[in-house]
Amino acid sequence: MLSLAAGRSTLALTIWPVASDGRPATAVVRNVVLAVVGSLLLWASAKVHVPFYPVPMTMQTFVVLALGMAYGWRLGAATVILYLAEGALGLPVFSGTPEKGLGLAYLAGSTGGYLFGFVLAAAACGWLAERGWDRGALTTALAMLIGNVLIYIPGLLWLGSLFGWDKPILAWGLFPFVLGDAVKVALAAVGLPLAWRFISARRT
């Protein structure tokens, strides 16, 4: 059964729990460190292009969704927002920067809708992970598929708004990436449950 009950710990909270005294300052430091590290991972993943068919792929959507599931919905979404803020301020954190522009101009370009979708996807995957969906291969894959849909919907809507719906929007912004996304879903479906098993084994 797919559980929607709350109360499950995330990977990040299990690996780095909040201090038992519950001091707010301790939790803030932990969350800030994790958010900064996550934004750096997003930055790095945007820059690495893996040869693939029919187009080269980055691992950025994988990192977005995996961070959401590892961090939980609040910290996952906040991490992606931090990453977008870094880009809005002009740091070359996005794929193709600085060659394709920087800052708000880049965010308003053809990939802007997908970047906004990153926030939705990280939050959704984090919410599902807090309900145990990252513990099994099937539920992890389903969560990642949901996250991908939440990236593509605003991405394609933005593309259509920019260029017109008479253009081949799906051929530009969806079909070339489906195979690569399927590979990333498969990697997550294997990797996240294995991470939980490894943690469980270390504790026994």
Keywords:
mainly alpha; 0% strand; single chain; Arp2/3 complex 21 kDa subunit ARPC3; 68% helix
Topology at a glance:
Elements: H1 11-15, H2 24-47, H3 60-71, H4 73-88, H5 103-107, H6 112-129, H7 137-163, H8 169-173, H9 178-203
Helix pairs in contact: 2-3, 2-4, 3-4, 3-6, 3-7, 3-9, 4-6, 6-7, 7-9
Task: Write a brief caption for the model.
The protein is mostly helical and 204 residues long. It has 9 helices and no strands.
Poorly predicted parts:
none
* Average residue pLDDT: 92
First CA to last CA: what distance? 26 Å
Task: Write down how many β-strands occur, each being a DSSP E stretch of 2 or more residues.
Answer: 0
> What structural class results from the helix and strand content?
mainly alpha
Q: Output the CATH class name.
A: Mainly Alpha
CATH architecture assignment: Orthogonal Bundle
β-sheet strand percentage: under 5%
* Number of separate domains: 1
Question: Could you explain how this protein is built, in words?
Answer:
The chain is mainly α. It has a single domain (11-203), classed as Arp2/3 complex 21 kDa subunit ARPC3 (Orthogonal Bundle), CATH 1.10.1760. It is 68% helix and 0% strand. The protein is built from nine helices and no strands. Helix 2 runs antiparallel to helix 3, helix 3 packs across helix 4 (73-88) and helix 3 packs parallel to helix 6 (112-129). The longest helix has 27 residues, at 137-163. The two termini are 26 Å apart.
